[in-house]
Design a protein that fits this description.
about 10% helix
Length: about 200
């Protein structure tokens, strides 16, 4: 059974985006090694300090080792509005070792959900912990002020794929007919979850 944080994408104005690369020297790059290939991700530590700090604690503690991507959302199988395309992963059924974090909106961070952006899945505001997703294509509906979430608070974007979007797209196209606990995610659960072998700092 996929843990309750799956609902973070159930209820899943482009903002004027500042130069999120201005503090490039402060950003942290990670290599996420999966059974389908490597994905390199840049974390925007200045724009989203709370979210990146939490993610790095999970990375540095090795908590993502052996986790997985387990859910794929496409325009064809999505039941939300507006429709999106993402892949979702994280600890899944395993309990996060850390408490949920405060919600950093895209209005605060200036990081919109564009192609390759990584963001935290959540249920209610302030419940994000260990589950995350990567956008395929621009997904402005996930930003602050939009209606994918009834609360219009959007999701907390905190980094971007800089290499390996071919791997992300390959995962998004894998068979996804595994049983689901919810009609909402029917056709979105991978038959064979993609293993996240390890996540390490690239620097």
């Amino acid at each position: 059974m996929i843990r309750k944080t799956l609902i973070g994408l159930f209820s899943l104005t482009l903002l004027s985006q500042p130069n999120i690369f201005a503090a490039h020297h402060l950003n942290v790059n990670l290599v996420m090694s999966t059974s389908e290939g490597d994905i390199e991700i840049e974390l925007f530590t200045e724009q989203a300090p709370v979210t990146t700090s939490n993610f790095l604690k999970l990375v540095d503690g090795g908590h993502f080792d052996g986790s997985s991507f387990y859910r794929v959302v496409t325009y064809d199988n999505d039941n939300g509005n507006p429709k999106i395309e993402v892949i979702q992963g994280g600890l899944g059924d395993r309990e996060s070792p850390f408490e949920p974090i405060a919600h950093e909106t895209t209005k605060e961070s200036g990081i919109s959900h564009t192609d390759g952006v990584i963001s935290m899945a959540r249920g209610e505001v302030g419940t994000a912990s260990s589950e995350f997703f990567i956008c395929i294509g621009d997904q402005a509906g996930l930003d602050y002020g939009n209606v994918r979430n009834a609360d219009e608070q959007g999701f907390a974007a905190f980094g971007k794929v800089v290499e390996g979007m071919d791997v992300v797209r390959k995962i998004n196209g894998l068979p996804a007919d595994a049983p689901s606990d919810s009609d909402y995610t029917k056709g979105q659960i991978l038959e064979e979850p993609v293993t996240i072998v390890s996540v390490r700092r690239a620097d």
